[in-house]
């Protein structure tokens, strides 16, 4: 749990300052996303799972609303504060993931031209959604904490999912992304491999939307 609420403006400014003012490659955008997740956890002095959504929701001018919607989630500025909407009909772990995913979009506001410049790609990924998924995984299942739990003997996907309060699929993906478990054939390219582990918290109809329960 976070120790105290942070100033909304300074917290977002600190996270956004991690973005270089130049067009980034997708690999650089992923690296920035993990840095932002790590910095947010450090701001709140979080050093043990599960990661509470309060690391996001304790920020001033951030409001969470549970709605009935065909989408997993959405976010928008209502003129006074940022609103994160999550589909209340989805499972608890899914709602946690979507909250983190949508917060990444809030962080990205005003920086998308740097983070996701139009480039020719040999895949069908929406880079903004793709990186928001990755950010959510990094925030809820941080690299250091997952490695620590695994090295201390907690190696069951079920038990790790219970510890981090995420889906078993999320744990499998993070184990693969971090390199603790290699579930990707060696012949697959990096982007193909990451695509195969994308978390689909994106709106319905976007790339990868049907890959996650």
UniProtKB/TrEMBL annotation:
Domain IrrE N-terminal-like: start-end pairs: 71-176
Protein name: ImmA/IrrE family metallo-endopeptidase
Organism: Gordonia amicalis
Top-rank taxon: Bacteria
């Amino acid at each position: 749990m976070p120790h105290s609420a942070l100033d909304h403006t300074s917290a977002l400014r600190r996270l956004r300052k991690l973005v270089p003012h130049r067009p980034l490659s997708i690999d650089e955008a992923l690296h920035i996303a993990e840095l932002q997740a790590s910095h947010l956890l450090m701001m709140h002095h979080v050093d043990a799972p599960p990661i509470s959504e309060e690391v996001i929701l304790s920020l001033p001018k951030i409001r969470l609303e549970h709605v009935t919607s065909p989408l997993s989630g959405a976010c928008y500025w209502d003129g006074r504060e940022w609103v994160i909407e999550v589909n209340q009909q989805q499972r608890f772990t899914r709602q946690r993931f979507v909250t983190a995913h949508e917060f990444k979009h809030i962080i990205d506001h005003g920086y998308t031209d740097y983070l996701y410049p139009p480039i020719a790609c040999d895949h069908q990924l929406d880079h903004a959604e793709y990186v928001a998924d990755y950010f959510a995984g990094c925030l809820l299942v941080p690299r250091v904490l997952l490695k620590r739990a695994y090295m201390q003997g907690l190696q069951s996907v079920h038990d790790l999912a219970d510890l981090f309060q995420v889906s078993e699929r999320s744990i499998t993906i993070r184990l693969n992304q971090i390199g603790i478990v290699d579930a990707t054939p060696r012949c697959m390219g990096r982007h193909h491999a990451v695509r195969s582990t994308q978390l689909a918290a994106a709106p319905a109809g976007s790339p990868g939307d049907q890959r996650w329960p």
